[in-house]
């Protein structure tokens, strides 16, 4: 692999596999509010919040961690204003005291908050305006969860980069990703170049999965899978991924390592591979290389889809996990290609109706499809060119899925948001 591309692949992993506490959309709101509060530096008397439809969808039903069980846009803003530490970015509300939780509730009662939809070409778009006794400030995030594109104080623009150019263009170009190079990179990468990134993912995500299996969080999907279907390795792979989501979607205050801006995707891409490696006594190096495959295959799919859409991100991550498991079990490039295509043919089209406890069920279904896609190929079976969205060549099928979710499901997304806001 060319040295330039090698370094770019390392950089993509560094950019994507970062820690976050809580569902990333409410946390992005808290981060935006915290930054705005820093800029304002005044006693707040009113807040105006504008958000895109996908933010409404993904904040509505999920518990914001460290708030005492609060949900919603206003609660996310309150958390950022009262307890946010801006420099902690997606862990902005990781250090909240009991007194601050009480202060959040008081702030929500005393501070008028106007929340309105924001028409934007970006699916992820947040604008927080805070009005104080002597000053006013405005901060806007667009494109991805930490991408501040506008800062204003007292009518003076302090920073502006333009929303049109805000998507992921400040990040390393993901268009260079392809399954062939992902496979070669995973096989060639020097372990010391990825060890710290991936070990943190293993430690964080496995810990929250164990929490989800040990205690009653959300709808207990992970626990129910094990109780109902037993502890076969394939069931465990689904159960651990689902259990992490059970905990995270219901306010668990443990951090996770995300993928493509999502904790659910970060857990789904990693935990099934981690479970397989533990159950089969694979070496740390074998696990690291398999996680490179699963994470990059997930990022590759998400590149054509976008951070937020009507297409469930768990599908991309579940299929990515299937590819990682295929690699862990000795699969070559062709095996990974067929695992990807088979898995996508099974579950593509699952819709995203926001972050909430049922995400755990979608994660389980997606991981199952990824694993089934692998075992289909091992048994000489496959979905073929021209069958539905499947095209000859793995990259063509991935592009088809991207077009489906990015273009074909735009109206679906609008209808979902309308239904959820009634």
From TrEMBL:
<comment type="similarity">
    <text>Belongs to the UPF0597 family.</text>
</comment>
<dbReference type="Pfam" id="PF03313">
    <property type="entry name" value="SDH_alpha"/>
</dbReference>
<dbReference type="InterPro" id="IPR021144">
    <property type="entry name" value="UPF0597"/>
</dbReference>
<protein>
    <recommendedName>
        <fullName>UPF0597 protein NMU03_16625</fullName>
    </recommendedName>
</protein>
<keyword id="KW-0456">Lyase</keyword>
<dbReference type="GO" id="GO:0003941">
    <property type="term" value="F:L-serine ammonia-lyase activity"/>
</dbReference>
<feature type="domain" description="Serine dehydratase-like alpha subunit">
    <location>
        <begin position="90"/>
        <end position="417"/>
    </location>
</feature>
<dbReference type="InterPro" id="IPR005130">
    <property type="entry name" value="Ser_deHydtase-like_asu"/>
</dbReference>
